[in-house]
Amino acid sequence: MGAPIRHGRLQRRSPWQTVRVALVFSVSVLLVSGGTIAAVATWDVARSVKPGVHLAHLADTPGSTAALAVDVAAISGGVDLLLTGTDTRSGQGGAFATGAGLAGSSGAGNNDVTLLLHISKNHQNVSVISFPRDLMIPVPACPQSDGSTASASSRVMLNATLARGGLSCVVLTIEKLTGVQIPFAAQISFDGVTVMSNAIGGVTVCVASPIDDLYTNPPLHLAAGQQSIVGDMALSFLRSRHGVGDGSDLGRISNQQVFMAALARKVETGGVLGNPVMLYSLAKAATDNMVLSDTLTNPTTQVQIALALKDTGLANMVFLQYPAVADPQDVNRVIPQKEGAAVVNAALVADQPIQLSGAPGRAAVLDKSAPAAPNPTPTSLSTPVPGKTGPATTPTPVQAATPGPGGAVLPTTVTGQTAAQQTCSKGN
Description:
Blueprint: H1 21-25, H2 27-30, H3 36-48, E1 79-86, H4 99-104, E2 111-119, E3 126-131, E4 136-139, E5 142-143, E6 149-150, E7 153-157, H5 161-178, E8 184-188, H6 190-199, E9 203-207, E10 211-213, E11 220-222, E12 225-229, H7 231-239, H8 249-269, H9 276-289, E13 290-292, H10 299-308, E14 317-321, E15 324-327, E16 330-336, H11 338-349, E17 354-355, E18 364-366, E19 402-404, E20 407-409, E21 416-418, E22 423-425
Parallel strand pairs: 1-8, 3-14, 9-22, 17-20
Antiparallel strand pairs: 1-2, 2-3, 4-7, 5-6, 8-13, 9-12, 10-11, 14-21, 15-16, 18-22, 19-20
Helix pairs in contact: 3-9, 6-7, 6-9
């Protein structure tokens, strides 16, 4: 793959790792069977939802925080939901409240994590795409909160789009890049990651070789083996770049995917779904610590999206990194790898199940002691539909993905893993 791509001193990272962000929202419906407890929990979570952010490409119809509807069913059709993690220190407290801490990033901050959750129209497959923070791409014109507009640009680093025009600008940018319309979005900060990790009781991850990173806060020191991480340590694990893989942001992405897959397995098989107290804590933590698009503030919508994930198997949940290569203009940046990106875009637009053929990534290895992961369950392909974008975006031309028995087989240049695959993080 050539020399490692390294990316400056920006050590901060605020990922909301759980691609099952909708699952977090699902607490309300999962508690409905709990009678009085469910009613109280649903009311409390619903009233915690803050006013939503309007996405500029959608019709001007603000969302609603109306009460949860009775007998809610899974949302009809597919779902595309963007999640950003901001690195802002503003309002985070602790070490981040110092002058030095705030100097790192304040205000809106940078979207140092950008994830796209795609649920297929038949609800049988989930793809979670991680976009490199240092990706240099065209950015469309972005409306500002004061009524002005930030001009379009042919070359902007992805993680600058949040400060450029808020959550809506990040959505518009990813729409332009992929050709997929994104009607739902959410944003989380450092505190949110810590609180969510505490709410689920931590996650056990496999560490292939020791991880040491003095650049995170708190510093990260993990010995090889199975490690349970929670709270601030989970945040440090997810932010770590210097301590994992080749020290690059692309290595950090695969390290985060190790965590996300382990989290998905815990949610699926570790008793989380059957624990009303934990589920309620997750929902409350999410609503208290996330900024949502106004299309997501209605608890009924949240539950409908959650129900779409109910029967998705771990083998059919794929985490992948958006294909990128070194930027010839700046070795500390990356640009889309055209062929691989076109295949990923085509699979998303056509709503095809995705099959990986590449390695887990720069900071991850398969856990040799774990049983072999099951293969994805073959499902009928959803009917391909044209990609849709908002008025301010132009979809990237896409080429057909290689069809396989269960969907689109991605080229080996696309790295990632399924939630069923047990992987280990490797130290730098």
